[in-house]
Amino acid sequence: MRGRGVERIEVALADSTTAGVELHEELTSTNEVMRARFVDDRERFAPFHTIVAFSQTAGRGRLDREWVAPDDSAIAISTYLEFDAAAARTSIGWVALAAGVALREALLELAAAQSPGLAEDVAGRIAIKWPNDLLVDGRKVSGILGELLGVVDGGARFACVLGAGINLRTPEQGLAFPHAIALDEAGIRPERDALIGAFLRGFAARIRALDEAGGDASATGLRGELERHCTTIGLEVRVTRPQDADLVGVATGVDGTGALLVRGADGQVHPINVGDIEHVRPVVKPEEGE
Question: How many domains does the chain have?
Answer without folding.
Answer: 2
